[in-house]
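Following up on my earlier thread - several people asked me to post the actual chain instead of describing it. Fair enough. Here it is, all 482 residues.
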Amino acid sequence: MLDPIQQHLDARAEQGKGHLLFLWSTQLREAAKTFCAQPDEERPLIPLIDAQTMLSDTIRRCHERFIIHISKHSDAYSKSCDYTEFIKTVQAIAGNALQSSDYASACGNLRLCIHEVHALLLSSENDDGSEPLLTLMDDLAMRVRCYMENAAEFADSSTAGKALNTIAQAANEKDMRQCEPLNSMLLISSALAFAQYDDKRIWAYDVIENAITRNLEYSFNEESEESDEDDEDDEDEDNEDTSEVDDETDFIPDESLHVLQLFTLMSAYDLYALSNDDAGREQLLKDYPESMALTLMNAANMIHEGHLRSAYMLAQDFLLSSRDMEDVDIDARHNGLLPDLLPHGWHTIMECCAEGLNDVGLLANVYRYYILSCNDRSDTHYVSKLRNLLRIYGGLSAEEWHDVADGLARDCARNIIDRIKYQPEITTKGGTQRHSSWRNPAYEKLIVDERLSDAALTYCVMVDYLLAIPFFGLGERSSISA
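Reply from S.P.:
Thanks for posting it. Predicted structure:
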């Protein structure tokens, strides 16, 4: 498991100019270069007032056609609107701005485009044909994010600051944060381009520290539910301290707030890394130890730098501090840092570190966990891996291994009892293989390979499904004698 992870981290560090980063890479810089026009080919920037007129006229015609469409078709559930003209107008104004070297004014036009697309999206919530607007917004946010690379590199400090402030204002509009939290934070992350330049870094800190204040630095506890019990003076004091933040956050649904918080943490981490601000990065990790994303990045850095034992302990501690180890592993599988490289989540981190350390004991512990928690056939090979590990590298004799296998089978039996007590028996079918929350194919393989007849009887008694499914491949109506 270690080699592909190290290779991926090496490639990611190269894209991050030597840093492991969440959101910034040299690919953004390369994409931004394609926007630059030759000095003699740059088109004049469309004046903001003209851009406003173009968009308002297009929106008016769009709504007029929408009304006509509704009048001809009385079925409200099939209503739709043709946004083709509006999309082309936005693309024309944005395309003109993205090639301009008048960065501050161009960002004004881009903010206008973002605002109008989002406003039309909000007015078209029940429109079956609004999908093109969502695609337009996604594309616009990414192109603006890349464009800010040019603003950071080529504009003077004052102009760059104005340009970034304009984009940050677009990102921080209440409706944008509520309904488009991902695109809002992608726009905020454009500040990372400025972190690489000494004379412009201050603008990046302003934008991202403001995001930290908006999205992270307010109470998540239940004090608001206890406010009726507070005296009047305390209430006034609380309102005075937090009203500005409450105004910004109360309207945001939990799902959107989660996105804002996650991307704020990732943006802050990248800011400190790109700025070589080790103190800021360490403080961020210390302040948010419950963040899976930050902890995973910390472990990845340890692996990248060869500190495998520290990475192992970090992953183990994070698992032990969690309420549900299985859920935490599932969450870690779906990450943007090591995509498709953590089939067992945090346990894969522990596995690859134990491999790199050549630590038989640590690796055996991970394999035992895979066998105990197995509920599909994809992990049955860990029985053979554990046997080979302990026999070849651990020095166990055949008899000693058999005793280990017998003990592991008893642990599997106890785990099955816990599953029966606390997990619903949900059975699904994928292809030709049956998957059951109460079944452990690795346990079954262990029983067969080691001929553990007592364990087989125990297993059959615990999960009485012998007449319903084949047991160990012995047929549909198997029995103990078979």
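The first strand starts at residue 427 and ends at 430. That should answer part of your original question.
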